[in-house]
Design brief:
Number of strands: 18
Strand order of the largest sheet: 10-11-9-8-7-6-5-2-12
Largest sheet: 9 strands, mixed
Strand content: 15-25%
Oligomer: single chain
CATH superfamily of the largest domain: tm_1862 like domain
Structural class: alpha/beta
Number of helices: 15
Mean pLDDT: 92
Number of domains: 2
CATH architecture of the largest domain: Alpha-Beta Horseshoe
Distance between the termini: 26 Å
Low-confidence stretches: 7-15
CATH topology of the largest domain: pyruvate-formate lyase- activating enzyme
Shape: globular
CATH class of the largest domain: Alpha Beta
Helix content: 25-40%
């Protein structure tokens, strides 16, 4: 799809529903990981462009300001937000604190990599203490695997970063791991247990590595058997259950009260504004149309567009009723909260609903789903075969 351009800000100004979640994309990293599909660029000598990029994000915010209500969640992701110059991060956080009305329990997350959790980064975080959650890209505690993935941190960096974060008073921490990068399941589980035993981890995300067969050095990971990956997924589920974690989403585990509220808003098909190059958003227009968009994945073009009152998109789609229903199914089947049967009955035609329920009952019988009068939700088996059950339930 080519670049989509819109200069009519009224079209983009959702006035019907007040939005309480904001995502900000920082597309800069010290190094680009071999497996990463997110839009990012090496920081290198880009300090002045990063400063201009932050200014563009601030300008972009004002195009949505009238539609944004009290903020319940903010998520600064990337890229590596912790890798940008401290003065740029300072300016962004200062702007957000001065311009957003955050509720008293606002969940404010920033992503960081272990090697960039510096004293300067933590100083800025302390200064703007609205940030109360950090998501750390650990991925593995095996130095050989980290190197093979193109990561520039090691096990020692992870431990030091966690110590420094906790010492600075932030206790709501997510750690990211990747499943399927080793055939040594025992060591994989032991490493995670070691981390949980030594730090008060309250949230863990674990994603199965997806490797493009043409992606050079990563092809070695294709040799890991699917059975091994499935076994790691199940053993991790069992381990975290013993430690009091709930497996509340396909790839996410949390102790009670530490679920990612920002991500839950995504999975519940909630509205959010996306700011920055490659950021996605979901809004309702003044005409009541649901719109999903993805900003252009080019920070220079994003800056130029914002400065010339143009919105540049990679994707811009009005969500019709069928698409809305299927998105609700897809997102709901990712979580233990599942799908509201009443909502499906309300939004589907009689025939569509009958087919939907028949398929759901068959999946329930085969152990993929659990059902009661009000809700359909995935079992552990349903999580393992998530794409399959979603395809089956689509109308």
């Amino acid at each position: 799809m080519g670049i989509l351009i819109c200069t009519d800000r009224a079209e983009l100004n959702p006035t019907k529903d007040r939005i309480g979640s904001i995502y900000i994309h920082i597309p800069f990293c010290k190094e680009r990981c071999l497996y990463c599909d997110f839009y990012s660029n090496k920081t290198g000598n880009l300090q002045s462009r990063i400063a201009s990029y932050i200014e563009a994000i601030e300008k972009d915010y004002f195009s949505y300001r009238s539609s944004i209500g009290t903020i319940g969640t903010i998520y600064i992701g990337g890229g590596t937000p912790s890798a940008i110059p401290s003065d740029s991060l300072h300016n962004l956080l200062k702007f957000l604190q001065e311009n957003l009305l955050m509720n008293s329990g606002c969940e404010f997350t920033i992503e960081a990599n272990p090697e960039s959790v510096s004293s300067e980064f933590l100083k800025v975080i302390r200064e703007y203490n609205a940030i109360n959650r950090i998501s750390i890209g650990v991925q593995s505690l095996d130095d050989r695997i980290l190197s093979a993935l193109g990561r520039i941190h090691n096990r020692a960096d992870v431990l030091k970063a966690l110590e420094n974060i906790y010492e600075n008073g932030i206790e709501n921490i997510n750690v990211d791991f990747i499943i399927g990068v080793t055939d040594d399941t025992k060591k994989f589980i032991t490493d995670i247990r070691t981390l949980i035993d030594n730090f008060p981890i309250n949230h863990l995300s674990a994603y199965i590595l997806t490797v493009n067969r043409n992606r050079g050095r990563l092809r070695k990971f294709l040799k890991i058997e699917e059975e091994t990956i499935t076994n790691q997924y199940i053993q991790l589920h069992n381990l975290l259950h013993k430690y009091g974690f709930t497996h509340y989403e396909v790839s996410n585990y949390a102790r009670s009260g530490y679920e990612s509220r920002h991500n839950l808003n995504y999975w519940q098909n909630g509205l959010y504004v996306g700011l920055g190059a490659s950021a996605s958003g979901y809004i309702v227009s003044g005409e009541g149309k649901r719109i999903r968009y993805k900003n252009i994945s080019d920070y220079d073009k994003y800056i130029h567009g914002i400065n010339h009152n143009e919105k540049l998109y990679d994707e811009y789609e009005v969500i019709d009723e069928k698409k809305f229903i299927n998105e609700t199914i897809m997102l709901g089947m990712r979580t233990i909260g599942g799908i509201d049967i009443g909502l499906m009955k309300e939004r589907m035609s009689k025939k569509e609903f009958e087919v939907f329920i028949t398929k759901a009952e068959a999946l329930n019988k085969d152990g993929y789903l659990q059902m009661d009068q009000h809700t359909i939700s995935p079992t552990l088996k349903g999580f393992l075969f998530n794409n399959f059950i979603i395809r089956e339930l689509f109308i």
